[in-house]
Amino acid sequence: MTVDYTKPKYYTNRELSWLDFNNRVLEEARDKANPLLERVRFLGITQSNADEFFMVRVASLSKLAAVNYPKPDASGMTAEAQLLAVNAKAHDQVVKQYSTLNRMLLPLLANLDVHVLEPGELTSQQTRFIEKYFNDEISPALTPMAVDSSRPFPFIGNNTLNIALRLFKDGDKKDKRFATVQVPDIFPRTVRLPGADNDFIMLEDIIKTFIGNLFIGYQVKEAANYRVIRDMDLDVAEEDTSDLLKEVEQQLKKREHGGAVRLEVELGISQSLRQRLIKSINIAEYAVYEINGPIDLTCLSGLTKQIAGHDDEKYPDFQSARTPGLQPTDDVFKTIRQHDVLVHHPYDNFAAVTEFIRQAAYDDDVLAIKMTLYRVSANSPIIKYLGSAAQNGKQVTVLVEVKARFDEENNVHWAQQLEKMGCHVIYGLIGLKTHCKLTLIVRREADGIRRYMHMGTGNYNDVTAHFYTDLGLLTTNTDMGIDASNIFNMLSGYSEPPFFHQLHMSPDGIRNFISKKIDEEITHAKAGQPAWIEMKMNSLSDSEMIAKLYEASHAGVHIKLIVRGICCLNVGIPGLSENIEVHSIVGRYLEHSRIYAFANAGDSQVYLSSADLMTRNLNRRVELLFPILNTTLRQRVFDIFNTLWHDNVKTRVLMADRSFTRIDRRGLDPLDAQASFMDQAAKEIAAATQKHTEGGSVTHQFKPMLSPKNQPKSPIDRSPE
């Protein structure tokens, strides 16, 4: 019997699944096992997540709904239906965010003598302080904007905090006026007060207390905070421009004026002021959110940094391990010639990668460096080393993806700087973002030219490498080197190699390769051979790949998926997805690595990639998938996956009702995978220190911290409760 794997009921809507992911982040803010200040920080992360989601994904839905785009998504929902459902679910999430703040976190902070005070709660000393602070510093930076027949409603910038006011002229309450004041972002949102170590007040509360001083001769009847989130997606028509850099710069200027997709207003705002804002900003009623507390909870991250003391309420400091053979005193090229090297960040220090680039920049035998850059830090050492390499006479070619969302301005700056330092800078292929992470170093050696490569699952960003988990491979494999050269020739010139030896590229190549590997597992399962698939990714939303996984499950292939974020696949569908298990891990570090592994008839294979199984990654981006060929390193990747799979502290399991549920740990030893990797790194540091003291050397190993007692029950076998 032919099975239809594409029925809408088999799929979860992508946007609603994303909101479920953000709810898992919110659960970390509510988890009593986390240090209190980290819980506060997690709550702030849910806000920044939601802001970007609305700026991009909800903005896209709004544009589709505006033109009555008829085609439904894989789950059968039209753009308009998605827009309404997303806002309804987001409203519920906002209620939960502020319930978490007001009922849980603020009372717990008060127990630590940390207070965010209202103006009426201040001492006389604190009241005098905020009045002086307002008059001396804040007031000169404020610009009251009146709205009347000669002065139209001003443009309200994206993600700016503002105060809407109703006023009347002294002695004439019928003389109704409206004005708005932007809260400057040059001051801290949470202002430390005198008289106590950790008393704070919100900046907007200071301004509202004395805002009448800006309107001499008028009385303030009402003042209410509000914020607008706008469409911030960059619309670059690459086919119509000969200079992509200039086009991106122009679009960055225009982006701030995107349409409004969300309006947040202070709870208790009058109906008349609320309607005035809705009409002036031109936004639908369903996109208006009444906020029971400070608008824009991203301010909580700044608060945690301002709080004095209480370091015991933060995560303990973590020192990542140095990779043997890739330190400043080592010859990194000799190390990589001897054996492939696998790095697992942040547990392995990202300095191994920057040292690879640094030594290439100053090595007389290095002829060329070629590199792709998607997101780099504001003070990237890699940029500095690439510039030094060019000035040292090496051929340096850097592909800078100037369309990397929300990093466009930073990347335009670095592209210009690299060109000034003598590097060849390219901007990728028309219509495609270049998202792969690849470095190729060409070196002249005694036995001829040799290619050294670094390929990774994460960005060349020394800052995010401290809190994103990623995997990278350093190798001199000949076939991979030839493939890497062909990739750069494709990106910089006109080249269409008929095939790759070891590497696989998107668009098309990764989709075709993974589909082929799944088909092979289906064949093995039907032949009665061991057949399984293990995958780890950020998001799983491509309907064709999900249908292929359903087909494999239906054929008897056992599938384990670790998906941090969006998951449009459903488990527990009788006869369809009973052989699929999905875990999601949200913890101290953002799980960012991508792993694709297959039983391969007993000769298991594992691949790492920059790509998630999302349509954009498979169809509209230049992505890289590469194999781990070294037996020891391949086993290390399997050990990493298994440790993550058996995590029972930070893991949520996808259930048949589409909810994510924590693992029942009764009778199990707790296993926090990220903590296990940190413990292993600490042991490696201790071993390296001892070996250094004794004059010896240390090898890099990983031993999974598992025991039979750590094995959780399969969700397939668990009862509904």
TrEMBL record:
EC numbers for this chain: 2.7.4.1
Record-given protein name: Polyphosphate kinase
Residue numbers spanned by region Disordered: 689-721
PANTHER family hit by this protein: POLYPHOSPHATE KINASE (PTHR30218)
Active site: 435
Record function comment: Catalyzes the reversible transfer of the terminal phosphate of ATP to form a long-chain polyphosphate (polyP).
Binding site for ATP: 49, 468, 564, 592
Similarity remark: Belongs to the polyphosphate kinase 1 (PPK1) family.
Keywords: ATP-binding, Kinase, Magnesium, Metal-binding, Nucleotide-binding, Phosphoprotein, Transferase
InterPro entries xrefs: PP_kinase, PP_kinase_C_1, PP_kinase_middle, PP_kinase_middle_dom_sf, PPK_C_dom2, PPK_N_dom, PPK_N_dom_sf
Positions annotated to bind Mg(2+): 375, 405
UniProt domain Polyphosphate kinase N-terminal: residue ranges: 11-116
PTM remark: An intermediate of this reaction is the autophosphorylated ppk in which a phosphate is covalently linked to a histidine residue through a N-P bond.
Domain Polyphosphate kinase middle stretches: 126-302
Species: Levilactobacillus tangyuanensis
Domain Polyphosphate kinase C-terminal: 331-496, 503-674
Cofactor(s) the record lists: Mg(2+)
Catalysis performed (reactions): [phosphate](n) + ATP = [phosphate](n+1) + ADP
Keyword Acetylation: no
